[in-house]
Write a structure and sequence with these properties.
This protein is of the alpha+beta class. It has 16 helices and 21 strands. The chain has three domains: 211 residues, Histidine kinase-like ATPase, C-terminal domain (Heat Shock Protein 90, 2-Layer Sandwich); 166 residues, Ribosomal Protein S5, domain 2; 145 residues, no CATH class. The strands form three sheets. An eight-stranded mixed β-sheet has the order 5-4-3-6-2-1-7-8. The termini are far apart.
């Protein structure tokens, strides 16, 4: 019997694997993120007295060179390390990299790759030329790796030199200050540990040659760039400090406004969840234009107004609201979308960075596994509501005159952009924008117009349980108001509301997304067929039934069909 090594891939299979790796990357800064991650991991492992990085970017030559004083690479492992999905970090829990794809992404994005490393086994150089061209070809030619021994005497560490193959690579459209912003917010250079008093003792000397050959250079600590750093503690207030001040005396609203007027309020903390410690830092700005002011303070522009400037897109540059993620001190560059709940208009004023040591993300750092997104978003929503409840109304405006004008004009400007109803069936001018309060108001308006003659409301929101308790033909019924079904599905999941206790749902409309969500939960959405010969036996003006097993169905009223039949 002949034994066959059936796991050995051929050249085309290797190309296919590597192309999949490259296709998974899409950010302009991905090369810098992968190179710096490897260097920071090497420095953490070596644990020198002081970690040092030196990064040189030459836009004119499309060259990047990064040196570190980390642990170095074992020359006997270099061939394994450079293979697709090969890694030397297995079992190192404190290290960030583990998938074995980052260095391969760099190599096969290049026309020249050179790694010079020194450790206890000696010093060597590994060189690969024309890897991008080899990847684009279809032949069976091999891609040589040249290994050269170098006399000992070099300090431990690694230097990687890369010339990118893409002559129009967007990375080289960024300015010196833009690249510093990216390094400190999207790569391992922006270590987040210092926020919680666990700093990485490392700095970086960054030198940049623009396309015209102009040289700029700066040395700075490897620390995440939080939005309040440009203020140097001026114009900021820590949320806990404000709370302590409140408890120290009977403070009037005027005193609170004077203390917080036009300040950025921030907080940080830790939370144990599922056996892991999640760390967070957040802030809330009085007005959204503060993001542009903070960006200008570090010489970058978040949202260029000038049309010529806006032609060169620079994703990732500039402070803005949102939820950013990190793991083990490294910013992932992956944001999580926060959707409006209640006071959605203030979400853009809110920023949070969450550092989760067990965070898992895909190759290319585009998304975080769905199982972890929910808990991180919920943490953000809780923190956001804390700002709304404790400080929002004191942050801006004119103390001497109108204390609400600071945000009123901005909010009305947004409202004016919402689509109109253009319907004679309602007094409302604008369509609801994910607001269940508008749905409730439309429902009561239609009661006044006689669409629900048999319904007599008793009380709304009794004991914060359900939205409306009412009588329908002397029968007791419970109604819930939601913009769409996703809201009530979440209530079911959280066990805040019970399926068998609700008689009717009043929504804006049923969407295909609703049908998909219902099917995932084992529910069905069935239309109600109205006919002059067969009178309706369900809730008045209901268009569908939501069914779950043997439980009584929930009738669904779509307000859109009543307002715009």
């Amino acid at each position: 019997m002949n034994a066959i090594d059936f796991l050995t891939p051929d050249t085309e299979q290797i190309r296919h694997q590597i192309r999949n790796i490259l296709d998974s990357y899409s950010h302009e800064w991905d090369v810098l993120a992968e190179l710096t991650q490897n260097s920071i991991d090497a420095i953490r492992q070596a644990d020198p007295e002081k970690g040092r990085l030196e990064l040189i970017v030459n836009a004119g030559n499309r060259e990047i060179a990064l040196s570190d004083n980390g642990v170095g690479v074992d020359s006997t492992q270099i061939q394994k390390l450079l293979r697709p999905f090969g890694t030397n970090k297995v079992g190192r829990n404190k290290q960030i990299g583990e998938k074995g794809v980052g260095l391969k992404f760099v190599i096969f994005s290049s026309s020249h790759f050179e790694l010079i490393s020194s450790d206890s086994t000696g010093t060597f150089a590994a060189i690969v030329d024309d890897a991008a061209a080899w990847l684009a070809s279809n032949g069976n030619e091999s891609l040589p790796l040249r290994l050269d021994s170098i006399p000992d005497g070099q300090a431990p560490g690694t230097t990687i030199k890369v010339q990118l193959s893409d002559s129009d690579h967007p990375l080289f459209n960024y300015s010196f200050e833009d690249l510093i912003f990216l390094l400190r917010t999207k790569t391992a250079v922006g270590d987040t540990g210092f926020i919680w008093d666990e700093p990485l003792n490392c700095d970086i000397r960054f030198t940049y040659f623009d396309k015209a050959g102009k040289r700029s250079s700066r040395t700075f600590d490897c620390r995440y760039l939080v939005p309040t750093e440009p203020l140097k503690d001026h114009g900021t207030e820590e949320l806990d400090t404000f709370q302590e001040w409140l408890l120290a005396g009977d403070r009037s609203d005027l005193e609170k406004r004077k203390r917080l007027l036009n300040k950025i309020v921030w907080t940080k903390g830790k939370r144990v969840q599922a056996g892991r410690e999640i760390r967070y830092w957040s802030c809330f700005v009085p007005k959204r234009d503060f993001w542009n002011k903070l960006s200008a303070a570090v010489n970058v522009q978040a949202d260029p107004d000038d049309e010529l400037e806006a032609q060169v897109e620079k994703p990732g540059v500039g402070f803005t609201g949102g939820l950013e993620t990190a793991t083990k001190g490294m910013p992932t560059g992956i944001p999580l979308e926060l959707k409006g709940r209640g006071e959605a208009g203030y979400l853009p004023n809110f920023y949070m960075l969450v550092d989760d040591p067990s965070l898992k993300f895909d190759i290319g750092r585009k998304s975080i596994h769905g199982r972890q997104q929910g808990s991180l978003k919920e943490l953000a929503y809780q923190n956001f509501r804390e700002y709304l409840n404790k400080v929002r109304k004191y942050l801006g405006g004119d103390i001497e005159t109108d204390t609400t004008a600071w945000d009123r004009d901005e909010i009305f400007s947004e409202i004016e952009q919402l689509p109109d109803f253009n319907s004679k069936e309602t007094r409302f001018v604008k369509r609801p924008n994910a607001q269940e309060a508008t749905i409730a108001a439309l429902f009561f308006e239609r009661i006044g117009k006689g669409d629900f003659v048999d319904i007599r409301p008793l009380v709304s929101g009794y004991k914060d349980r359900y939205d409306l308790y009412a009588l329908w033909k002397n029968r007791r019924v419970i109604l819930e108001f939601k913009y769409d079904l996703s809201g009530v599905f979440k209530d079911f999941s959280d066990e805040r509301k019970m399926f068998n206790e609700i008689n009717a749902l009043v929504l804006w409309e049923i969407t295909e997304s609703d049908r998909t969500l219902a099917a995932r939960r084992g529910m069905t959405i069935d239309p109600i067929q109205n006919s002059p010969l067969v009178p309706q036996t369900g809730f008045p003006n209901a268009s569908h039934r939501l069914s779950l097993g043997d439980a009584n169905p929930i009738f669904i009223v779509e307000m859109r069909k009543l307002i715009a039949p």
